[in-house]
Design a protein that fits this description.
2 domains; PurM-like_C_sf; 60s Ribosomal Protein L30, Chain: A; 14 strands; HypE; Phosphoribosyl-aminoimidazole Synthetase, Chain A, domain 2; 345 residues; PurM-like_N; globular; five-stranded mixed beta sheet; Hydrogenase expression/formation protein HypE
């Protein structure tokens, strides 16, 4: 008698934390699961988009699940406002209005919720954008982690701007508005009790005024992107991919604060992969680089602006990002695979 062994059943694929990291796993989730439900997506994926039929109104939405709720330099409330304002700004839009939706876990202390909402309201007021509508839901214990926030923003395009991740051009100067790695390391240190929070605070802040300062460059300003999830590495790879060009940066020009560098060294992290919430990358025509840097440095949020690299012709390798290291070598800067620091936004 012959006994047949059952064919092993493949384990059903499941969603991982890395699918929300903004790296390659996120791209795969969008390409194979999310976008097909809407009929696909033509052109580059942007964090904000023009409303159908409109030439000036831009819309963006974002969810915030950061843990812990409060961290040095910010909290989930202010982060929700800044993140959505910045998504609009990266498409060249001035924020006009926000909506806020809360999912609150049963048992959350009302004092904590009040503190989050005060911070959110203050951040919206300081950014000059009103919260005009919203929603609140309460779920059972364990069905959420304290509070999750979804914000949707509507903005109006600044005259003369048409920025996109697909608009980089050979010869463009790559500018960075300030130091990297502060937000991700601040959140991780607070959550895990690593002790770095005494020296590191999140850089979370709105960037729309910085974009407005660059608006006079008009068609010489080609790309804006805030390097949030996946850090600077993910942002540069997305721009290089969508523009089908190559990007080359200089390691010595990228500002990494000493406490961030020390924390990343101890934890085995690449600062280029660590999330930021208050800096941006700008690709500008080479003859506009000095003017752009002067405009950025005229504002507190751009006081540390520097030129970190250039856009190169693809030369058969579109989407490639390289970095000249401090010792004179050159290495490829890959798109992060998944989530190195989960729950940071």
């Amino acid at each position: 008698m012959i006994t047949e062994c059952p064919v092993p059943r493949a384990e059903t694929e499941r969603v991982l934390l890395g699918h929300g990291a903004g790296g390659r796993l996120t791209a795969e989730l969008l390409e194979h699961t999310v976008l097909p439900a809407f009929g696909g997506q033509e052109g580059p994926l942007e964090d904000a988009s023009l409303l159908p039929g409109s030439k000036e109104l831009v819309m963006s939405t974002d969810g915030f699940v950061v843990s812990p709720l409060f961290f040095p330099g910010g909290d989930i409330g202010s982060l929700a406002v800044h993140g959505t304002v910045n998504d609009l700004a990266m498409r060249g839009a001035e924020p006009v209005a926000l909506s806020v939706a809360l999912i609150v876990e049963e048992g959350l202390e009302l004092g904590q919720l009040e503190a989050v909402m005060r911070s959110l309201g203050k951040a919206a007021q300081e950014a000059g954008v009103p919260v005009v509508t919203g929603d609140t839901k309460v779920v059972g214990r364990g069905a959420a982690d304290k509070v999750f926030i979804t914000t949707t923003g509507v903005g109006k395009l600044l005259p003369g701007l048409a920025v996109s991740a697909a608009n980089a051009r050979p010869g463009d100067a790559v500018l960075l508005s300030g130091p990297i790695g502060l937000h991700g390391t601040a959140v991780l240190s607070t959550r895990e009790g690593l002790g770095f929070e005494a020296d590191i605070a999140s850089d979370t802040r709105p960037l729309h005024r910085l974009v407005a300062a660059l608006a006079p460059l008009a068609d010489r300003l080609h790309v804006l992107r805030d390097p949030t999830r996946g850090g600077l590495a993910a942002a540069l790879n997305e721009i290089a991919r969508d523009s089908r060009l190559a990007v080359d940066i200089d390691e010595r020009a990228v500002p990494v604060p000493e406490p961030v560098a020390a924390a990343c060294d101890i934890l085995g992290l690449d600062p280029l992969h660590v999330a930021n919430e208050g800096c941006m990358v700008a690709f500008v025509a080479p003859d506009a680089a000095d003017e752009a840097l002067a405009s950025m440095r005229s504002l507190p949020e751009g006081s540390g602006a520097v030129r970190i690299g250039d856009v190169l012709p693809a030369d058969g390798r579109p989407g490639r990002v390289t970095m000249r290291t401090a010792v004179g070598a050159r290495r490829v800067v890959d798109m992060p695979l998944g989530e190195l620091l989960p729950r940071i936004c």
